[in-house]
Each structure stands twice: as structure tokens, then as C-alpha cells.
Amino acid sequence: MSYIFVGLGNPGEEYTDTRHNTGRIILEAFAKKNDCTEWKADMKLKSLACTGKVGKEKVTLLMPETFMNNSGNAVRPLVTSAKKAETLVVIHDDLDLPIGRFKISFGKNSGGHRGVESIIKAVKTINFIRLRIGISKANAKGVVKKPQGEEAVGEYILAKFKKPELEELKNVAKRAGDALALIVTDGKETAMGEYNKA
Q1: Which residue from 55, 71, 91, 106 could staple onto 115, CB 3.0 to 4.6 Å apart?
Q2: Active site includes 20?
């Protein structure tokens, strides 16, 4: 089974290291670790694309260049059936999780994430895998402190990570990369059992 990994974010220098680009940050780290080919612009997929291998399985990696709200346009040409959608793994930022945590989901709605909404519309199903990477601050007890109101959320997700947060994200990227590899080698249920415990 050939998997498609999609790291959500916005193209352009000004969005580098912003919270909303977490999906791209995680995918780039995965590409480096797994000796993927060089990133190349793919006009048909409106993405930067590269390929790699996990075990014996080929994986296609995409970073849409469409801006977040139109991420589905990048995925649509590759995901042409419900069966193919099950090989799609979308990596994105998640305000419901604190920095340092991630969760694997399958068959869930967008949770208000516009990039995910765009993909659901494009592939006409919610039955794909999501790797949700936490970007929210949390108090000492681990309770998430999300920004309130659309404007505050917009400002927060488009702001750059602070240095300690980026360091935390590097640690997450390693574990998230292992989770992605486990999805390919052993399936999503095994990966969920292993990584959704915490």
C-alpha cells in the first residue's frame, strides 16, 4: 500500500516556523530522516513533492503550495476513491492539544481546521488518517489554554514559535516520524494503540 503524507501549512518565507506551519515542519523532519528525494515543485499537485521509503513501502510526501484554506486542491488529483483516501495521512497543527503532544485520528470531522475542511471537501470523505500536532500552551497540570475568539486564534496560529517551543517541536518531530513509519509498516490501529496512550 502506497501512502501519501501531506504536511499542512502556508508557502513563503514569512510563514516559516509559524504555528500554523507545524504540519510542514514535521513532514520536513520526516523527509530528512528517511532519505527522501529532493523536494520538487509539482504543478499538477500544486505542491512541493518528494518520495521516500518506509521499509519496502513507497511514500509520497506533499507540502501544498496552495495556502491552507485550499489544501484540498493539492490532494484531489491523487485521492480519487474512498479506498485511496485510507492511505492519506494529513499532518497538521491542533489547538486542542498542548505543545509536546500529538494524536493519531481516523474518520473524524475537521474540528474547525480549515486546511482539513478543504481536504474533506476535496476527497469527499472523513475516512483518512490525521496526525494532529499540539500547538497550545498548557498550565502546570497540562490543561490546554487556547486563545479565545477568531481574531486571537488567527494571531496565535500565524505567530512564530518561540525558541523553547521549537526545541520541543524537534522532540515531537522524532516521535511523530516514528508514528508515521509505524502507520506504514503496521497499520493505523497499531500506531494509535502505541502513540495515543498518553
Answers
A1: 71
A2: yes
Look at residue 181 and give its three-state secondary structure: helix
pTM value is: 0.95
Q: Which of 80, 13, 83, 94 is nearest to 45 (CA)?
A: 80
Counting Cα atoms < 13 Å in the Cβ hemisphere of 39 gives: 16
Looking at the DSSP assignment, which residues form a beta bridge with residue 131? 91, 104
What are 113's three cell numbers? 481546521
Contacts with 140 (C-beta within 8 Å, 6 or more apart), sequence order: none
More confident residue, 129 or 148: 129
DSSP string computed for 140-175? TT--EE---SHHHHHHHHTSBPPHHHHHHHHHHHHH
Q: For domain 3-195, which CATH number applies: 3.40.50.970, 3.20.20.450, 3.40.50.1110, 3.40.50.1470? A: 3.40.50.1470
Considering 4, 6, 10, 20, which one is annotated as catalytic? 20
